[in-house]
Design a protein that fits this description.
290 residues, alpha/beta, 5-stranded mixed β-barrel, 8 helices
């Protein structure tokens, strides 16, 4: 499953439309949209703005629908100097929390076509007179809190941040007209970016599906588990020997070795079970050569 976290409906609506996600019925802690993207289940959650709301919203899908990937998408301000790359979507490679000063680095495991940039998360709206920083050119109010919350459930390679630049800092809109103007501008920019971002979501959905298939292939069978417990008991296995037996059983299965028949022959010959741990080490060395 892929989880998507978005702060505002105006940011999410074009993406939901592009991915075919539908509003979930029933009550939930946060508004949600559900669907299937390239044969992978997908849940999109609205977090609302601010670090506290974002951290709480991140924890919700991670406990209710444990995804293998969490993708955060939304608008951001440009705090670099020079021309504003309005409408450009970045993949965040560094997160800085303006309050605590802590820094995180999402692992960029998979190659992707988007430009990369660092982002700072703060508690206030980034204004036109705010300090510029070319080394950390992106600014939002949620990302660092999401990463810190998600780190309790996922590794740094499983959390992705995609941010689309909408402005270079805005004055707080204190009238209906300015609020509507800001909303319409963000809606236009995010709508234009939806196709590109939906392609990225689909790519991560395929990655998640592939990993799920590989994980299922690694799950031990009932027969494998039974043989592991039987051999550990009969060899008086230590913790280290148990781990080696797990690896051996997996190898025998993948290599197509008829290990069950060969082990039963050793039981019939009286070589197993071992009388004590010392003999168990000898028998273990022998069965490694099955």
């Amino acid at each position: 499953m892929v989880g998507i976290l978005v702060a505002l409906p105006v940011e999410a609506e074009p993406l939901c439309l592009a991915l075919g996600l539908k509003r979930a019925t029933g009550s939930s802690a946060f508004p949600m949209y559900l669907g299937t993207v390239d044969d992978t289940e997908c849940v999109l959650v609205f977090s609302g703005t601010g670090r506290i709301s974002a951290a709480a919203a991140a924890s919700y899908p991670l406990t209710e629908f444990p995804p293998t990937r969490l993708l955060t998408y939304g608008s951001c301000a440009w705090r670099g100097s020079g021309d504003v790359p309005q409408g450009t979507t970045f993949c965040v490679n560094k997160l800085v929390d303006a309050v605590s000063g802590r820094t995180w680095y999402p692992d960029m495991v998979y190659s992707q076509p988007l430009p990369e940039a660092a982002l700072e998360t703060g508690d206030t709206i980034f204004g036109p007179e705010s300090e510029r920083n070319d080394l950390i050119p992106l600014y939002d109010q949620e990302a660092s809190a999401i990463f810190e919350a998600a780190s309790h459930f996922l590794g740094p390679h499983q959390v992705v941040f995609l941010k689309t630049v909408t402005d270079a800092g805005v004055e707080f809109p204190d009238t209906k007209e300015t609020r509507r103007e800001l909303k319409d501008r963000i809606a236009k920019i995010m709508g234009d970016a939806a196709a590109l971002v939906s392609d990225e979501v689909r790519r991560y959905a395929r990655v998640a599906k592939d990993l799920e298939h590989k994980q299922e292939a690694l799950e031990p069978t009932v027969e494998e588990t039974e043989w592991l417990e039987r051999l550990c008991g009969d060899l008086h296995a230590s913790v280290a020997m148990r781990e080696e037996l797990q690896r051996l059983l997996r190898y025998w299965i993948l290599a197509g070795i008829p290990y069950a028949d060969r082990l039963e022959e050793r039981y019939a010959a009286g070589e197993l079970p071992a009388k004590d741990r010392q003999e168990g080490k000898i028998r273990f060395a022998e069965i490694r050569r099955l």
